[in-house]
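Technical appendix A lists one of the benchmark inputs used to test multi-chain prediction within the project. The record comprises two sequence entries:
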Amino acid sequence: MTPTYYLLLSALLFSIGAVGVLVRRNAIVVFMCIELMLNAVNLTLVTFSRINGKLDGQVMAFFVMVVAAAEVVVGLAIIMSIFRTRRSASVDDSNLLKY
Amino acid sequence: MAGAAWLVVAFPLLGALILLVGGKRTNAWGHLLGCATIAASFVYGLILFFSTTGQEEAARTSEVSLFSWIPVDQLQVDFGLRIDPLSITFLLLITGVGFLIHVYSIGYMAHEPGENDRRRFFGYFNLFVAAMLILVLGNGFVTLYLGWEGVGLASYLLIGWYTDRPSAATAAKKAFLMNRVGDVGLAIAIFIMFKVVGSTQYTAVFDGVANGAFSSGELVALTLLLLLGACGKSGQFPLQAWLPDAMEGPTPVSALIHAATMVTAGVYLIARSNPIYTASPDGRLVVVIIGAVTLVIGCVIGCAYDDIKKVLAYSTVSQIGYMILAVGLGPFGYALGIMHLLTHGFFKAGLFLGAGSVMHAMNDEVDMRKYGGLARIMPVTFVTFGLGYLALIGVPPFSGFFSKDAIIEAALGQDETWRAWVFGGAALLGAALTAFYMTRLVLMTFFGEKRWKDIKSSDGREFHPHESPSVMTIPMIVLAVGSVGAGAFFAIGDTFTEWLAPTVGVLEESHHHVIPHAVVPWLTVGLSLLGVLLAWLFVGRKRVPLSKPEPVPFPVRAARADLYGNHFNELLIARPGTWLTRALVYIDNKWVDGLVNGTAALLGGSSGRLRRAQTGFVRSYALSMLGGSILLIAALLAVRFA
């Protein structure tokens, strides 16, 4: 089992997440795709930690998780409040902040 | 005696201060104070004169340093007075003739509208005389410059005296501006002196000339720049156009400006700078050319005018031309130029005062075509004017004969034959023309039929000519006596040239004569009589029409238009100046402002377009972030593996 497969998997996950962010309109789904990308990055960090035999990457992955958890809290709250006022969770509907 | 010489300047300056600051409460006695200050200066001038005449030649020159005026590092200008024969001569002329004109003004300005006016007039008059005295008494070029500008200011105030006349305002402005052109020359000349010798005092500069501190190029530059200044102040070609327009002022102003003070400043400047001019024959040639050109054009234009004051003004232009010609001859002519200046001061002041007296009698009418037959009605004016006239056209033994004839002889006695013929010829031609226009003036004014009988003056009043009051006629009589006797007094026995010798050098006699020495006076007088005869043929024996004859041949048209001097200035200086300013305004508006405004518009426009990228769609932002990241990573990889 070479680490390359882990890296390929994480690249795949990241790509799925990125495409999801770009093509989906539902804010919840976009949010989940972001989580997917974050976790793909976590997987990369852990893999390289394993390859290099150092713990730096593992520690970094924990940090990412903490930040992701905080981000989920704030992000879900924003989505909730937008949904309450506009009765829609579509990211394309909330486009008032523009030129 | 010279130690208290500052009093001479202080009297009229104090008079001007009291009259201009004192206001209404000096109205009652203002004119008397104005005359008294000038009289005091004149008396002090006489004391100075008599205290110097008896002394040795070297002792006649003294300098008084009054105070340190501009002490700036290397530039140390002391305010001091120089008392020498030249400055005493001018001092006496200015205060003497100036005093007579002041007295005359008491009568002439008595009927001025506005109760303050006569007092203010005397204030300006005193200021004028004070400035002129600073000009001639200063011991350095910067002091001279102070007086030079002061005279310019006072002349501006006096020429524009009739503030309700737009023409007077224009004339004052014109005089001021054209003087400024000359002043630039004088200022640059002073800069050069300071640069080369580090001082602007006469003695230091002239010592520098004697020691060879100036290169020949600098000397020529100095002569030409000083000449430019002289041309501006003295109304010489090509800056002569302001002088006839200055007739817009009251007649005593014309008399003061044209006879005793302002216009003589140019001649004074050249005579004072005689070491510089002696050292530069090339510069002197230019001076002679300017003098000859001016004296001829002044005469030619004078023949064509019907305005009595303008004729006299052009006569002044041409007589100053004689003086400039004389001082341009160098050691042969400095003293002669100053002598003509003195005699001219007498007879021209007398002529102007006479013209003022005539105008006074004729409701301020200046058109000679409306005069005629005034000799019987105004006998005193006629006789004094006639004596001045005889002096001006150079009839012996009146004063103009001695001084003008001496200049013509000197002009004919130049070493180069062509110069003698050209400039001597111009001077002789001028003598004949002078006789012509002055005879025309006298015939039209005092003889012939009384053309004013059946017409009204331009302000609608009928003419009731009368002799002027004695406060006006007495100065005229005194000046007439001067016009008769001054020339003989100065010239016979070379009294005057010897008196001036310590300042301008001993007058040299030429031994080169294109026309025999003894013939010249006869020739001069003969040409003058020819001019008189021609004037009688053209004007005296015919009826003078009330309006100008039209059409006239081209030379007369040209002379009536000042030989197109104004057109020339307009075409050569004013128009290109206007174009230049317009071009500059265009460049400023379109290019400079265009650059600034264009930068702002470019930034504003492009940011307006860039703004469109902010669509508000989160997903497009996400796409651009992704794209950007991919580009960055691709670039990094490309650099890494290249």
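The CA atoms of residues 55 and 90 of chain A lie 40 Å apart. Chain A is about 80% helix and 0% strand. Comparable benchmark entries are summarised in Table A2.
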